[in-house]
Specification:
- β5 and β6 form a beta hairpin.
- The protein is an alpha+beta fold.
- The chain has helices spanning 4-41, 45-60, 87-90, 100-108, 126-131, 167-198, 208-225, 239-246, 248-264, 289-305, 334-349; strands spanning 62-71, 76-83, 94-96, 112-114, 138-145, 148-158, 229-236, 271-276, 279-285, 320-327, 356-358.
- Helix content is 50%, strand content 21%.
- The protein is built from eleven helices and eleven strands.
- The longest helix has 38 residues, at 4-41.
- The protein has two domains: 10-197, Beta-Lactamase (2-Layer Sandwich); 208-358, Reverse transcriptase/Diguanylate cyclase domain (Alpha-Beta Plaits).
Length: 359
């Protein structure tokens, strides 16, 4: 026989459960709404991803969580965002497609809930060994767009271990991943459009449009902090003969290969641009003319020692003429800097070729 007191207790418990579930639903809907707004209000990839992962963390409360993006060229996953214990130890780790839970999810394109990783042979201990963290349970979902996997969201260990992650968590995370995939696709497309306007398609260097913008910025910094900007202007010697003898297609391949040779000699702060045709410009912030002259000399040697178009069976040797100038030593503004470096290059071009001259 059920007493009135027992009935009241049962009713109270049911009411509390209903309120809790209702509150959770409202929280989920609020999160979806906020993510929708984030996707439509920004095209900055990092900003969007940080908002997405912050909301996921609030809603599902994992101890550790990460967002991995796909590197299509290397067929790997890399950690774009990592939050939690030992995050700094695993941010540089890369996973092959199919490796570990995240790699499996990326390869198969299927969400996965693993209540106990010790019972799942797909689990990789690589991250745990690096971070000294102990993974117990994982929930991972792919970021899919138009049939392609862009990355994986991975949540590790429920913050409050009440039976770990549930199927409901997997469903919620899968829905959130759909929002995230849209955001990534939109932001990536916008980024590519921006890159096309400032990047040379052949060499992947910046173009002259970006050069002028970058120079103006660096000139202002140099003026403010009383530092230098150096420029190396180089032009390939007798490049027309390559086009005439081997065709424009091979000429284009040589230019792309030349860009790779130039890139190897650059510092992180240096910016290389294709100025036009077979002319290249290297901008070196906070660098003296003497330092730029030495850098140009090393690059001249690297070009001399390289053999171009070997894969095409041509094994070509090519040289370049270099001009070096700096601001404020040789020029008052960026236009004069380009002019002085160009004139120094033509001193070499009209005499010996394959040498470096200073303005």
């Amino acid at each position: 026989m059920i007493t009135e007191s027992a009935k009241d207790t049962t009713a109270t418990e049911c009411e509390a459960a209903f309120v809790s579930e209702h509150s959770q639903r409202i929280k989920q809907l609020t999160t979806f709404s906020e993510l929708g707004k984030a996707i439509t209000s920004s095209l900055d990839l990092k900003e969007i991803l940080n908002i997405v992962m912050e909301k996921i963390s609030e809603l599902l409360q994992p101890k550790n969580w990460s967002l991995l993006l796909a590197d299509e060229e290397k067929n790997e996953l890399y950690f774009e965002i990592v939050v939690g214990e030992g995050a700094d130890k695993i941010k540089d780790i890369r996973l092959k497609m199919g490796e570990g839970i995240a790699g499996w999810v990326a390869r198969e394109g299927t969400p996965l809930l693993v209540p106990d990783v010790n019972k799942d042979p797909r689990f990789s201990k690589k991250a745990d060994e690096s971070s000294k963290f102990t993974t117990k349970s994982i929930i991972a979902v792919p970021l899919k767009s138009k049939g392609k996997c862009l990355g994986v969201i991975e949540l590790i260990n429920k913050m409050f271990e009440q039976g770990g992650f549930k199927e409901e968590d997997l469903l919620v995370l899968t829905t959130l991943a759909d929002y995230t995939a849209i955001a990534i696709e939109n932001a990536t497309f916008f980024q590519k459009i921006q890159e096309l306007t400032i990047t040379d398609d052949l060499t992947k260097f910046y173009n002259s449009r970006y050069l002028y913008r970058f120079l103006d910025y660096e000139a202002e910094r140099a003026r403010r902090y009383k530092s230098n900007i150096a420029m190396i202007f180089l032009d390939l010697d007798k490049f027309k003969e390559v086009n005439d003898a081997y065709g424009h297609l091979n000429g284009s391949k040589l230019l792309a290969e030349m860009a790779k040779v130039i890139s190897k000699g650059l510092r992180k702060v240096d910016v290389a641009c294709r100025y036009g045709g077979d002319e290249f410009v290297i901008v070196m912030p906070q660098t003296s003319k003497g330092q730029a002259y030495q850098a140009a000399g090393k690059l001249r040697v690297s070009i001399n020692e390289h053999r171009f178009l070997t894969e095409e069976g041509l094994n070509l040797h090519i040289t370049a003429s270099f001009g070096v100038a700096s601001l404020p030593e040789d020029a008052k503004n960026t236009a004069e800097l380009i002019q002085m470096a160009d004139q120094a290059m033509y001193q070499v071009k009209n005499s010996s070729r394959n040498a470096v001259a200073m303005a």
